[in-house]
């Protein structure tokens, strides 16, 4: 059986980052990246729908170690993919990637301090041994998006498409399109399709907060010209981290003022007399769910020029020619796009067992947002939901490497977090109200309300704890097959 020190699951933005930090900080460690698909890039290679782009600026969504050099801060998928693949090439990571390798499960054996990883490749199953398992596969199912049950779906005579499975040959020129949804995918699709479609209607059950942002960051571009790529990027990154935190804190502390400000901005981008409250004023407070960013107000521009419109209503049923709404109104459509969300699937859907006992993820508690209680030598990458995903992932990778160094220095082979405060209340790991989270709330790990068991969403706090704080902790139980330190 082949053996490596670390198995990284997933070759997307998190897995590539994990590989970079691991080989930089621990060049003597062997590792393999197992990728179920046939390409690097994860989300940015999978999704092919029109206009796909980031909803965070690339100065924070990009890696700290690799400057973002493009003038667009909100970038399209092709640019992000090129950036990721350039990172792979520059650092010799591709040799470590094994494509079409799907991890099905893993079994921990304390006697050997090893994971036996169950892998499928081209229909053939085999086992791989590893001291550590690092899951970097994101939080949703790659093979299946979420689509609710729509009455009368089978009657519709046109095409029904989910953005996660976009047909490469779809021609929507001059056609009537209804996009069901109001999240990040919908607000990206609508203005992009509206440029050539006959008309695009965004049909939403309820509004989402939408904020126009500049596609280009003038400060960042000027800083790069004056200070060079590295220093300019670092300065822009610090500025945008502070800005993201400031916006989030303002929305949480002063929700009424934030709601008023967002509405005023929206109204300024829409035609006079437009029913802003009907279509762009959610029932919840700002940042109770993620804000949707629209670069250069492209969604509002499409609405203003008449190529797109928004309808807020509930679907009664699909018809032969479109969608019937509960209000009695009907929307004609040649194409219906169900931008209705994702299916959450943590850790790539793998199953785990520890010394023969299956791991029930719903009974585990996250430690420092990187490990799970009771599960030895298992790490995962989960980014911010209120800021750029990669900001947190970078800190987690740094902490993982610090933990490995500590174990090397003290001769440890294994480490397991133990949730040692049974009186501490817990709450879901993903603690916000989005529908795709609520559907799996009873299946995912939990978090505590203080200390290392709290899943913080604050970069400043996390940087202090994960980058500068001590590795050793009373909640961590270290083990060794041999207590002779590696240095001796």
Automatic annotation (TrEMBL):
A Pfam family of the record is NAD_binding_8
The answer on whether this UniProt entry bears the keyword Oxidoreductase reads: yes
The UniProt transmembrane annotation reads none
SUPFAM superfamilies named in the record: FAD/NAD(P)-binding domain
UniProt keywords, alphabetically: FAD, Flavoprotein, Monooxygenase, NADP, Oxidoreductase
Superkingdom classification of source: Bacteria
Q: Which InterPro entries match?
A: FAD-binding_MO (IPR051820), FAD/NAD-bd_sf (IPR036188), Flavin_mOase-like (IPR020946)
Recall the GO molecular function terms of this protein's record: flavin adenine dinucleotide binding; N,N-dimethylaniline monooxygenase activity; NADP binding
Q: Which cofactor does the UniProt annotation name? A: FAD
User: Hey, which family's this protein in?
Assistant: Belongs to the FAD-binding monooxygenase family.
Name of the protein in its database record: FAD-containing monooxygenase EthA
Q: What is the originating organism of this protein?
A: Mycobacterium adipatum
């Amino acid at each position: 059986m082949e053996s490596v020190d670390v198995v990284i699951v997933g070759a997307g933005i998190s897995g590539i980052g994990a590989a970079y930090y691991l080989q930089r900080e621990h060049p003597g460690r062997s590792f393999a990246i197992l990728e179920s698909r046939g390409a690097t890039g994860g989300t940015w290679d999978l999704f092919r729908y029109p206009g796909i782009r980031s909803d965070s600026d690339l100065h924070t969504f990009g890696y700290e170690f690799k400057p973002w050099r493009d003038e667009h801060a909100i970038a399209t998928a092709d640019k992000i993919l090129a950036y990721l693949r350039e990172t792979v090439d520059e650092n010799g990571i591709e040799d470590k990637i094994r494509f079409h390798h799907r991890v099905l499960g893993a079994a921990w054996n304390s006697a050997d301090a090893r994971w036996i990883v169950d892998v499928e490749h081209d229909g053939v199953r085999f086992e791989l041994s590893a001291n550590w398992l690092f899951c970097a596969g994101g939080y949703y199912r790659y093979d299946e998006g979420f689509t609710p049950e729509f009455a009368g779906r089978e009657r519709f005579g046109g095409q029904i498409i989910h953005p996660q499975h976009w047909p490469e040959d779809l021609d929507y020129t001059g056609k009537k399109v209804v996009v069901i949804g109001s999240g990040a995918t919908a607000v990206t699709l609508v203005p992009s399709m509206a440029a050539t479609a006959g008309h695009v209607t965004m049909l939403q059950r309820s509004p989402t907060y939408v904020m126009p942002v500049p596609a280009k960051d003038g400060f960042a571009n000027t800083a790069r010209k004056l200070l060079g790529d590295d220093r300019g990027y670092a300065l822009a990154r610090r500025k945008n981290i502070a800005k993201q935190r400031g916006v989030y804190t303002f929305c949480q502390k002063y929700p009424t003022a934030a709601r008023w400000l967002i509405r005023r901005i929206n109204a300024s981008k829409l035609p006079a007399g437009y029913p802003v409250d009907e279509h762009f004023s959610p029932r919840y407070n700002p940042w109770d769910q993620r804000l949707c960013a629209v670069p250069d107000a492209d969604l509002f521009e499409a609405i203003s020029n008449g190529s797109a419109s928004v309808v807020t209503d509930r679907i009664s049923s699909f018809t032969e020619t479109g969608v019937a709404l509960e209000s009695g109104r009907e929307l004609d459509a040649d194409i219906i796009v169900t931008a209705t969300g994702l299916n959450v699937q943590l850790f790539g859907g793998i199953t785990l067992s520890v010394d023969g006992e299956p791991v029930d993820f719903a009974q585990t508690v996250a430690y420092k947002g990187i490990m799970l209680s009771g599960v030895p030598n298992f790490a995962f990458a989960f980014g911010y939901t209120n800021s750029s995903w990669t900001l947190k992932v970078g800190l987690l990778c740094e902490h993982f490497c610090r933990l490995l160094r500590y174990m090397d220095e003290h001769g440890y082979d294994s480490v397991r977090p133990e949730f040692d405060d049974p009186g501490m209340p817990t709450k879901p790991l993903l603690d916000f109200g989005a529908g795709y989270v609520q559907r799996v709330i009873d299946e995912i790990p939990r978090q505590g309300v203080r200390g290392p068991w709290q899943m913080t969403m604050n970069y400043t706090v996390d940087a202090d704890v994960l980058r500068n704080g001590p590795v050793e902790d009373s909640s961590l139980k270290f083990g060794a097959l041999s207590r002779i330190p590696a240095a001796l």
